[in-house]
Design brief:
Largest sheet: none
Oligomer: single chain
Number of strands: 0
Structural class: mainly alpha
Strand content: under 5%
Helix content: over 70%
Distance between the termini: 53 Å
Number of helices: 3
Length: 89
């Protein structure tokens, strides 16, 4: 039963990723596009964790952790660039 729930959740997260991609492309403002990109990588983390649960291996969790760290750093760098126009002072 758990495998069926994981497959259903994978489809829902895939749909959420498509909506985020649509907002990333069509977003009316740069802040909407940044939020869509941030949500897109959070959804990809959830998808990778679900795949790790489905296959029963811990290797996927390490990949999700790497994506989470890179996503946080990139979001903070883009936010700093938008506020000051410069990343490294």
């Amino acid at each position: 039963m758990l495998s069926n729930v994981i497959i259903i959740c994978t489809g829902m997260i895939g749909l959420a990723m498509l909506f985020c991609l649509w907002r990333l492309i069509k977003g009316p403002d740069i802040t909407d596009r940044i939020l869509a990109l941030d949500t897109l990588y959070i959804n990809s983390i959830a998808l990778i964790i679900l795949l790790g649960l489905y296959y029963g291996t811990a290797l996927y969790f390490e990949g999700a952790l790497l994506i989470a760290m890179l996503g946080f750093v990139s979001t903070s760098a883009v936010a700093k660039y938008l506020l000051r126009g410069d990343i490294i002072e």
